[in-house]
Known about the structure:
Blueprint: E1 7-11, E2 15-21, E3 24-32, H1 39-49, E4 55-62, E5 68-72, H2 82-91, E6 97-104, H3 111-129, E7 132-136, E8 138-146, H4 150-159, E9 163-168, E10 172-180, H5 184-192, E11 198-204
Antiparallel strand pairs: 1-7, 2-3, 3-6, 4-5, 4-6, 8-10, 8-11, 9-10
Helix pairs in contact: 2-3
Amino acid sequence: MSLFEDTYRTIDAKYEGIFRDKGSKFIAYAFPFKSEDQLKDLILEVKAIHPKARHHCWAYRLTPDRKVFRVNDDGEPSGTAGRPILNVLLSMDVTNVIVIVVRYFGGTLLGVPGLINAYKSATQDALTKAEIIERTVNDHYSITFDYLHMNDIMRIIKEEDVEIEKQKFDNQCYLEFEVRKMQVNRIVDRFSKIEGCQLTYLYTI
């Protein structure tokens, strides 16, 4: 991602979609997804709703540059579930999203083309209902500084409209903040000119 491509498309909340074919029912759940740490809990959440379903297949796409992804067919023939789900995420150009599709078997085999279409269609139904939102790519930093420089620091924060995430004020003060990617160089440069200011990059999201 270049410095000027600092936005990405994602969803704002959980959405549900459904597709039926020859008695089989496919229920898709699309969730906002920021970290692989959420994976286990979201799968358990869906399994708790549908404990008798035969398959709980999923795919996700992560990071603003859209390079991180995983798929899982959960017992379906290889390539018939997770990959079609992922392909919808790709075609809709969304990231930081996971879709979990639950299948109830209807007694009739659908075959490979039928399964691919079913998982794709259920996912499409969920995501076409979703509100697609555009977010900026933000870098997160911490800054440590002497209390005597409080006014200088806060002036920059106010003028640059920097969002503070955590703060602790004492003789030595500590802030965590986020700033839009394309503004990083200018703001970091302003902070670095303050004597004794220690700036640390944390992460990007």
